[in-house]
Design brief:
With 149 residues, the chain is an alpha+beta fold. 28% of the residues lie in helices and 36% in strands. This is YiiD C-terminal domain-containing protein.
């Protein structure tokens, strides 16, 4: 059973404007706020010669979450930058995939304090990628920096 996104809401449109390749990949935002984010990566057009989702597409779905979580706390003028992502591919993905992560209120407070004090702040996200059946197909750890722009 394939998962389907609700539609192209403002968060998805903003993502596609900021990073057009994510739009070409068909990635849509399922959820995004200060504590939780998830995106849907469709099988098509991201399948490879084996009929599974291309590893680079899985990486992109995981990485893009770093730009959509933990913010909206009066941090206008700051931008998220990725500094490192490690991903473990656990099994082939043969359906749409959801990439998701959470960000605790304690970490949000620390991020805000560090950013306002130093003009930058580091944060880490643990990301799970699951197929349409709820099976984890990959997991990633992303390291990011929020920086004054």
């Amino acid at each position: 059973m394939e998962q389907t996104a609700v539609g192209l809401g403002p968060a998805t449109s903003s993502m596609h404007t900021s990073v057009p390749i994510l739009g070409a990949m068909g990635i849509t935002v399922l959820h995004g706020d200060a504590s939780r984010a998830s995106v849907l990566l469709p099988l098509t057009p991201n399948s490879n010669h084996l009929g599974t989702i291309y590893a680079g597409s899985l990486m992109s779905a995981a990485e893009c979450l770093g730009g959509s979580i933990g913010f909206g706390q009066g941090l206008d003028g700051f931008v998220p930058l990725v500094t490192r992502v490690e991903i473990d591919y656990l099994r082939p993905a043969t359906t749409d995939v959801t990439a998701s992560t959470t960000f605790s209120p304690d970490h949000q407070a620390t991020l805000r304090e560090d950013a306002l004090r130093d003009g930058k702040a580091r944060y880490v996200l643990h990301i799970s990628l699951t197929d349409a059946h709820g099976v984890e197909v990959a997991r990633a750890v992303g390291q990011y920096q929020l920086r004054k722009f």
